[in-house]
Design goal:
The structure is a single chain. The protein is mainly alpha-helical. It has a domain of 38 residues: Histone, subunit A (Orthogonal Bundle), CATH 1.10.20. The chain contains 3 helices and 2 strands.
């Protein structure tokens, strides 16, 4: 699918962009080459290719889900300026 200079000018007008004639010609060439590449890629037979979640065949290393810190809630609640029912009270920001 080739894109014409007039198509680029119409798109530029709709996007409220100022594009000179030389720029429109260059943009039309570049977009046409991109569209040709997409057409070429879509014509490739991918029936025998297994879908992948990621392009790299990598395995994510997971660590065990183990608690590594002690519970400091009581201590932090004691040194907080203001708490109520286990919650931290903060000044009202939105009126």
């Amino acid at each position: 699918m080739a894109l014409e200079q007039t198509d680029v000018e119409k798109i530029a007008h709709l996007a409220r962009l100022h594009v000179s004639t030389e720029e429109a010609t260059e943009v039309a060439k570049r977009i046409s080459s991109i569209l040709e590449l997409i057409d070429e890629m879509q014509s490739i037979d991918t029936e025998s290719v297994e879908p992948m979640a990621h392009s790299f065949d990598a395995i994510q290393r997971l660590r065990p889900d183990v608690v590594t810190e002690i519970d400091q809630r009581e201590y932090l609640q004691k040194i907080a300026p203001s708490t109520q029912d286990g919650l931290y009270l903060v000044p009202k920001v939105i009126e």
